[in-house]
Amino acid sequence: MADRTIQGVGDGDGIRTFPFPVDLSVCGVGMQVGPMGTGRTWHAEAPLHRVHRIDFHVVMLFDRGPVRHMIDFAEHEATAGDLLWIRPGQVHRFSDADEYRGTVLTMQPGFLPRATVEATGLYRYDLPPLLRPGPARLTGLRAGLDQLQREYEDTATLPLSLHTAVLRHSLTAFLLRLAHLADSSAEAARQQADTTFTLFRDAVEKGFATNHSVSAYADALGYSRRTLVRAVRAATGETPKGFIDKRVVLEAKRLLAHTAMPIGRVGAAVGFPDAANFSKFFHLHTGQTPATFRAELR
């Protein structure tokens, strides 16, 4: 089966995109489910340890870990009981240093009816790919996946049309559970981001006059710099550094406009003991020198 290429990015002329391997699925149905392990591949030529795309859905439920897997520039570390949900068109890469063990489900677009696609959020690219269910949800997901695998492998009990219909119903039940987990995970992440940003905002309000360091705020709050960046960007659209600088500029403007403090003292009051550095900073963010800004308001 030939692969496709998305032009313009990646090795050579583009990123290779591999289609759903219908020839490898039982009875040629539009899905596969089975164990992960050495020797399994999307395609005979698929370079799993190199960046590539697939035009179908993949859900991996891990029995072991940690496993590092890159999806659209983000490195995700999954361990036993975690799931990774990769959607069509996402650029990803397998780790050639880690051992993948567990169950993998693949599904061809069009295998499920439109109403089911909408209900299960199959194309919700905003949802997190790495999912960590609690014990009760994991039990339900494992049971659903085990049932789906039994139905998939049982080709003797039912005629093909009924076999396919049962697979669609079993797959829908599993995906509804998975979609609910993804929605819950996204909401929990939003709440965490809100909390992180609130703590950061309060810390900046108390410390901006002496502390302009993103790393210092992250360390004081117990977050990684990356976590702080994500939370502040989600809440404000800005970087943490941009948020700090905006608060410093606001205070400087207040002091310049509403007090008679010398410009050097204004700079010192917002964390710039050197007046020249304060003037450069203020000009960079406002397009004016402190003196010009003050003169225009007098």
Query: How many angstroms separate the termini?
Result: 75 Å
Strand order of the largest sheet: 3-10-5-8-11
Structural class, please?
A: alpha+beta
What is the rounded Rg? 27 Å
Count every beta strand, where a strand is a DSSP E run of 2 or more residues.
Answer: 11
Give the overall form: elongated
Number of helices: 9
Helix content: 40-55%
From N to C, what is the helix and strand string?
Answer: EEEEEEEEEEHEHHHHHHHH
Can you summarize the main beta sheet? Answer: 5 strands, antiparallel
Uncertain parts: 1-13
**pLDDT averaged over residues:** 86
Strand proportion: 15-25%
Describe the structure in your own words.
It is a single chain. This protein has helices at residues 114-120, 135-153, 160-207, 214-221, 225-236, 240-258, 263-269, 275-286, 290-297, and strands at 4-7, 14-18, 31-36, 53-54, 57-62, 67-71, 74-78, 83-86, 92-93, 102-107, 130-131. It is 47% helix and 16% strand. The protein has 298 residues and is α+β, with helices and mostly antiparallel strands. Helix 7 packs across helix 8. The N and C termini lie far apart (75 Å). It is elongated. A hairpin with a 2-residue loop joins strand 6 (67-71) and strand 7. The longest helix is centred in the middle third of the chain and has 48 residues, at 160-207. The strands form 3 sheets. The chain has a 5-stranded antiparallel β-sheet, covered by helices on one side.
